[in-house]
Amino acid sequence: MPLPSSNLQPPTTSCYPADLYSNLHYFVYCVKLRKEEEIGQVYVLAVCGMGFGTSLMMLMNVQELGRKHGIQVRGEAVDLGSAKGREADLIVASSEIADKLSGSSVPVVGLSNLVDKGELERKVLPVLKELGGE
């Protein structure tokens, strides 16, 4: 059975079996739409020594870069010890910390200058585009 058009409104609830079928059909439709929205979403770990200042700034810059290019970026700012064993699509860190994470199965991007948005764009954007499905 084809999915209803995108302008479908939720059916009103009632006790009739026909309405139950409509509600179920609408629920499945919403679940499929939600899954489609998650495509293009990238989960990033921003890593620094302590896990608050520098990593939070990096994460915010990566999220801003993603927004600018239509890629939804979610993530966490964490310290080096917490980063190991965490699931993510991408890890962003200073060059020194990135060297310590190089054995990871996740792409690791090391930044030499953490406030240089040009370096961030050159190094992180290609990975975001690849992971985001562009």
Account of the protein in words:
By secondary structure, the chain is an alpha/beta fold. It folds into two domains: 32 residues; 91 residues, Rossmann fold (3-Layer(aba) Sandwich). 47% of the residues lie in helices and 19% in strands. The chain has a four-stranded parallel sheet. The chain is globular and about 30 Å long.
Keywords:
single chain, 134 residues, alpha/beta, Rossmann fold, 2 domains, four-stranded parallel beta sheet, 19% strand, PTS_EIIB-like_sf, transferase
- Domain module count: 2
CATH level-1 class of the largest domain = Alpha Beta
Estimated structural class: alpha/beta
The coarse silhouette is: globular
CATH topology name of the largest domain:
Rossmann fold
What Rg, in angstroms, do the CA atoms define?
A: 20 Å
The string of secondary-structure elements, in order, is HEHEHEHEH
Pfam family, one: PTS_IIB
Protein name: PTS sugar transporter subunit IIB
Keywords: Sugar transport, Transferase, Transport
GO molecular function, one term: protein-N(PI)-phosphohistidine-sugar phosphotransferase activity
Structure at a glance:
The protein has 134 residues and is of the alpha/beta class.
